[in-house]
């Protein structure tokens, strides 16, 4: 079992047991995003249980990690560290992943000039530093939220 919230809250309690809006913390980003990931992955698992397999997967933002997980591109543990970069997939592969392709991968191609990459925290931090030094005009954003889709270890 992967622990993502240090035991601070329980998913089912947040989704079902909160009786009113004042008790609910569902608008807290750290509470809201894990259920979205869980629901997306659960829906995919339900479809597979009915022998319905996707021929393609489309996602955006937090759905990127769920889609990459469902497609088998990431393990649950690997979904925890991502970096959005305004480069093409080919540029990322040729300029950033040379000799480290076993440590990081492109998990989502958002558009021809926007990808999401994933890897362990150290590798993503190093890639972000390389981008900051060598590619000053390239947008890069590491979203650090403590849950199972855009968050650090």
TrEMBL record:
SMART domains: PKS_AT. Residues 4-153 form the Malonyl-CoA:ACP transacylase (MAT) domain. It comes from the Eukaryota. Keywords: Phosphopantetheine, Phosphoprotein. InterPro entries: Ac_transferase_dom_sf, Acyl_transferase_dom, Acyl_Trfase/lysoPLipase, Malonyl_transacylase_ACP-bd, PKS_NRPS_Biosynth_Enz. One of its GO terms (molecular function) is fatty acid synthase activity. GO terms for biological process: fatty acid biosynthetic process. PANTHER family: FATTY ACID SYNTHASE, SI:DKEY-61P9.11. This is Malonyl-CoA:ACP transacylase (MAT) domain-containing protein.
């Amino acid at each position: 079992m992967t622990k993502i919230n240090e035991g601070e809250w329980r998913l089912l309690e947040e989704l079902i047991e909160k009786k009113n809006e004042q008790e609910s913390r569902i608008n807290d980003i750290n509470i809201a995003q894990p259920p979205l990931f869980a629901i997306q992955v659960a829906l995919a698992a339900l479809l597979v249980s009915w022998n319905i397999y996707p021929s393609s997967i489309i996602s955006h933002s937090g759905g990127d990690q769920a889609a990459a997980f469902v497609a088998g591109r990431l393990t649950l543990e690997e979904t925890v560290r991502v970096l959005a970069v305004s480069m093409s997939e080919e540029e990322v592969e040729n300029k950033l992943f040379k000799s480290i392709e076993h440590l990081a991968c492109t998990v989502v191609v958002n558009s021809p000039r926007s990808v999401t990459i994933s890897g362990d925290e150290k590798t993503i931090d190093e890639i972000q530093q390389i981008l900051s030094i060598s590619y000053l005009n390239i947008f890069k954003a590491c979203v650090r939220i403590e849950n199972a889709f855009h968050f650090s270890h």
